[in-house]
Amino acid sequence: MLPLAARASCPYGSALSVPIFVSLASFTSLFHCLSPAVNSSLLSPYAEFDHLRVILVEPRNPLNIGAAARAMSNFGFFHLRVVNPYELAFREARSAVGAAPLLVRAGEFKTLTEAVEDCNLVVGTTAVGQRQLQHPVRRLEQAAPLIRKRLATSRVALLFGSEKRGLSNAHFSHCHWLLRIPTREEHRSMNLGQAVAVCLYELARDPQAVSKQEKHLPAAAADLERLTGLLLDALRSSGYLKTKLGGSQKPRSAAPVDEKIRRLVRRLHLSASDAELALGIFRQILWKSRNDSKLSP
Known about the structure:
Layout: H1 11-14, H2 24-33, E1 52-57, H3 62-75, E2 80-83, H4 100-105, E3 107-109, H5 112-116, E4 121-125, E5 137-139, H6 140-151, E6 156-160, H7 169-172, E7 177-180, H8 192-204, H9 221-238, H10 256-267, H11 272-295
Parallel strand pairs: 1-2, 1-6, 2-3, 4-6, 4-7, 5-7
Helix pairs in contact: 3-8, 9-10, 9-11
């Protein structure tokens, strides 16, 4: 079994609980697969797996990070990113059995914006619960084929929140949609390392299901974030969003309006070329608006 020292439940990092669609026998088989004696020929990792970025947002326990790294190595996913970890010594986690090199290479970021900027699809994980979510939520078995399809052509980020709180609404605003493991209502939460293992198992167990490549490359998260910023600037310049006295703009933050605009931009599902066009349009609108303001008496 995974040597998960932190057994406190987490909402995905708290997000995920034991899926009811997996039988007891198959779930036992999953944990046999996580042992060092795993038969890798059963998984047949594909090159598409190299496009997945597993991102742990504000994880608190280094042993959970190590367990997630071990699961990644077991299933053939080798790109781990960590955002603002609570414990900086996570790279030395003893739970990363056989996956120490993966942990050493893990990227460390101060913000989620930086961590996802080169990704074309960002998927968050959630246990749902009593939260009022603004995103489409798909069950894991429904989400996996969509993720595999996108992995054929572009980079995908799969986000897991902290053990204590999971992903916040501000984190969700960076996502295109969310996934959940269909868990027992009375016990939704799951250990962070287990959650990562179950999601990656679902992605790896049917690599033949990779669909045809998409014709249009989707926009990267960095371009969508730039577009979000330009749209917010245009809304403030036009007076739709109020500015502080003296004409200075409100500092950008994880305010509800910013989150709504960010979600709106991602719901458009822009291609890379469409995002580039939209960026040019909004830059021109802002330039014209600001120059007209200077010429006004």
